[in-house]
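Please decode residue identities from the backbone states below.
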């Protein structure tokens, strides 16, 4: 490059300029000022800017179907940058202002599962569209546990208790049948009861695992009625009557059984249970209400 100053006039100057223009391109800046001469160049030299253009950004978009599952779903973006958005009523979503890079898109919504659970998407010099997911509403499966108590005459009206992952109680129908519904998977204990009856087995452990459970059976038995008959000798003193006391521990304490004085010399206790042992004493009461000490203790063991 050569920088020449030319301000002369006349034929000589013109000849010089004509001679030189064969090899040089002359670009006048201002009259009488400097000329910029470039050999073999046809362009204008201009000032180079030091400001870089802003980097390009792109959009990543997609949808969740059906719209009923996608509407309101949260869609999260991770990877080259992170963001979160909510799918519109049609299940569509988008992220803008993304630089080139690899991103992971993950949808979520309470009560729904998504296929695939997430997707890896690469943005490389263009928008990324068509990132799609399928949403499925989750339903919690529940099951029924049922059985019966035989004979029906013993099972009818029996109470059946359920314990385990959930607890419940029901009453067997007139045929002795019972059932529990809306049970989740798990192990339950079923226990029947009815006053005056015994059950075999006394309870059962039952596992619910992806299906209804039937045929949980019990046999009820009504034990033979038992009672304890008491009699004693009359007091040698003048008395108005007697009281009968019962305890379940040898030597007491005792609880009075009769609500009013017994004027005879016998008493029948029908409120006894098979397998129990009872201890009895009596007292004599005179006309002034004075009560004697306990008599000798009698013992009764119920079969």
């Amino acid at each position: 490059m050569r920088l020449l100053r030319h301000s002369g006039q006349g034929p000589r100057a013109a000849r010089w300029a004509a001679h030189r223009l064969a090899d040089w391109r002359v670009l006048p800046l201002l009259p009488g000022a400097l000329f910029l001469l470039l050999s073999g160049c046809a362009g204008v030299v201009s000032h180079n800017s030091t400001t870089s253009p802003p980097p390009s950004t792109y959009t990543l978009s997609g949808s969740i179907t059906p719209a009923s599952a996608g509407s309101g779903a949260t869609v999260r973006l991770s990877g080259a940058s992170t963001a979160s958005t909510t799918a519109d009523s049609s299940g569509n979503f988008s992220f803008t202002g993304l630089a080139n890079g690899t991103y992971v898109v993950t949808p979520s919504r309470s009560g729904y599962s998504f296929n695939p659970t997430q997707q890896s998407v690469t943005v490389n010099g263009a928008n990324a569209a068509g990132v799609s997911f399928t949403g499925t509403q989750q339903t919690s499966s529940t099951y029924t546990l049922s059985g019966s108590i035989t004979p029906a005459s013993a099972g009818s009206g029996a109470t059946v208790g359920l314990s385990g992952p959930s607890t419940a109680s029901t009453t067997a129908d007139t045929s002795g049948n019972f059932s529990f519904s809306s049970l989740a998977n798990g192990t339950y204990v079923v226990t029947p009861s009815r006053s005056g009856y015994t059950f075999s087995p006394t309870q059962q452990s039952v596992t619910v695992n992806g299906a209804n459970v039937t045929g949980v059976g019990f046999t009820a038995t009504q034990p033979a009625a038992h009672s304890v008959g008491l009699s004693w000798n009359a007091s040698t003193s003048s008395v108005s009557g007697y009281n009968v006391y019962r305890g379940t521990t040898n030597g007491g304490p005792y609880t009075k059984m009769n609500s009013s004085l017994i004027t005879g010399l016998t008493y029948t206790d029908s409120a006894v249970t098979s397998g129990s042992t009872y201890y009895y004493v009596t007292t004599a009461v005179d006309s002034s209400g004075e009560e004697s000490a306990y008599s000798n203790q009698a013992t009764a063991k119920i079969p």
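Observation: The domain at 58-137 is CATH 2.60.40.10 (Immunoglobulin-like).
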